[in-house]
Amino acid sequence: MTGRSLTDHDVDLEAYALGLLDPEEAVVVAQHLEACALCRNELHRIEETLGWLGTAVRPVEPPPTLRNRVLVEADPGDRRRWRLAWAWGGLAAAALLLLGVLLLAVTRLERRLDEFASQQERIAAVLARADWSTVVQGEGAGFPPEVGRIYVDRGGRDGLLVLGGLERPEAGRVYQVWLLRADGSRVDAGVFLPDRAGSALLLIEAPDDWTRYRGMGITVEPGPQGSTEPTGQRIAGCNWDWSAWARS
Description:
- The chain has helices at 13-18, 23-35, 37-55, 64-73, 76-129; strands at residues 2-4, 132-138, 146-152, 158-163, 173-181, 186-192, 200-205, 213-222, 234-239.
- It is of the alpha+beta class.
- α3 (37-55) packs antiparallel against α5.
């Protein structure tokens, strides 16, 4: 089961290491790092790389006796040239560090653009195949009667959940989607956090065809990875009866 929104390793580690994330994003990444050894190792590697960039051009301090002798023997013009050379060395080191930071930022941006384009293609494909949809009803206190809609292809396994009007959960919590089987068991369908406007979009890949499920629910669970089974308050959901929706 995969739900593309906040996956185990889908974090901006380069941006986190560079301090480019806003506070809310940084908190989410920090919570993920607490539970993910793989990402902690990757962050350590990135921080080592940044440290290397900062020392890649290291000025070598000459022995004090040599420096004093040169200063005594050199005329004022030579001194200015010598100081200028040291200044250019410092500028070169700073330029190299800046170049490294820019390269990391460009790489991050390119990756995000590729991921965005890929997600848009998947969304378009799911909507093109979808032959059924239903309203997701708000159930928790403070939630509107309707919080979104789910689109599915009854003969397939892909689905698209579009939500709005959601409040941000408490710090350290996420929303988790569950698919309900006919026997009452629940299957994890992914976790997500809404944006500042209260909107969220989640691509769902069910382990079985959608006709094997009779509904969906959303609960509040510990972040960033959610729970193996529902433990928190259910804030939204929907039920369906496939027998009433026979294919035409």
